[in-house]
Amino acid sequence: MSTILIIEDEQHVADLIKQSLEEEGYNVLHAADGLKGIELIKSENIQLVILDILLPKMNGLEVCRQIRNDGYTDLPVLILTALGSAENIVLGFDTGADDYLAKPFKLIELKARIKNLLRRSEFFDANGTVINDVYKFADLELNDYTKKVTRNNNEISLTSTEYRLLLEFMKNPTKVLNRGDLLDNVWGINFDNGTNVVDVYVNYLRKKLDKFGDKKLIHTVTGMGYVLKNDA
């Protein structure tokens, strides 16, 4: 069973989550500050991190950024914090988080999100068969097993969220995807309709893709959403 690391300075919150996840069969570790959390990630085989923002020694956003800078690009990070405004959500994703849940929270929702994140990070299907899907569109290629993305044979470095967003477009070429669909399928949660997290990440992704090609591939459809198409 997967090993989950909780980085949370409120002991009663950590104990509640730890007990609930252990009852589900997970192996759970706990760090009460950001620096200890980083140490455990480096020393243990962690499959998912639950991360508070308001931490001693190193805050959660710094921890998340450090995790990505240290090369743990595929390690799922779920931010769990009382800072639940749209601005904080976008900031959390900007530092490399995969999901964001505001306190107070329901354990049943937390466990559902954990299962969703762990499922996304798997390289094998339920029968143990390697998933080796390669998606191609115009001069863009995405290998969903190696997680490698190239355009005109130039490798493109993406965050985990940018990668999932591109994968959704690659699975639905020429189809207009509205913001609600992208929020559900990429982030796996329902945000307040006022958030601009989709627009922010589409912009990030566009800049990285356009750097290696002559044509823009992700287009805005006014009032509807976005579409992957090979038009000038």
TrEMBL record:
The modification 4-aspartylphosphate is found at D52. The keyword Lyase does not apply. Signal peptide: none annotated. GO terms for cellular component: cytosol; protein-DNA complex. It holds the Pfam family Trans_reg_C. One of its GO terms (molecular function) is phosphorelay response regulator activity. Residues 3-118 form the Response regulatory domain. GO terms for biological process: regulation of DNA-templated transcription. InterPro entries: CheY-like_superfamily, OmpR/PhoB-type_DNA-bd, Sig_transdc_resp-reg_C-effctor, Sig_transdc_resp-reg_receiver, WalR-like, WH-like_DNA-bd_sf. The keyword Membrane does not apply. Residues 132-230 form the OmpR/PhoB-type domain. Keywords: DNA-binding, Phosphoprotein, Transcription, Transcription regulation, Two-component regulatory system. Residues 132-230 bind DNA. This is Response regulator transcription factor. It comes from Paenimyroides baculatum. The lineage of its organism: Bacteria, Pseudomonadati, Bacteroidota, Flavobacteriia, Flavobacteriales.
